[in-house]
Amino acid sequence: MFDKKPKSYTDLLGKTNRIVEGTIIKGDIISPADFRLDGELIGNFTSNGKIVIGPAGSVKGDIICNMADIEGKFEGKIQVEDTLNIKETAHIIGEVIVGKLSVEPGATFNASCVMFSANAKATTSADE
């Protein structure tokens, strides 16, 4: 009845990882939790959660995630399961594959874009 398991530090402190402005990472990041990037990533990013690329953040590489908000620079291929929000300060170059797309006026969007629906996703999974 009173036998509770102690909570992990991630449960107590939240599950958002953060890379601050001025930090440069060269390599791949794999994270099960949400991620905020205000620094620079040269490499690939994979997550089951959400990535936020802040106004000072930049990514050169591929991203696979559930949701994304981009305010900074992105160059590469991004695959978002649910919604990709591109803010007015964003600069996107490359290839975009999304479920839903939101682009604010003023954003730079120079990318090929493929949107998939739940039906297309189910069909693709069945074909594999």
UniProtKB/TrEMBL annotation:
The UniProt entry, under InterPro entries, shows: BacA/B (IPR007607)
One Pfam family it belongs to: Bactofilin
Spell out the family assignment given in the record's similarity comment: Belongs to the bactofilin family.
The name this protein carries in UniProt is Polymer-forming cytoskeletal protein
Organism this protein belongs to: Flavobacterium taihuense
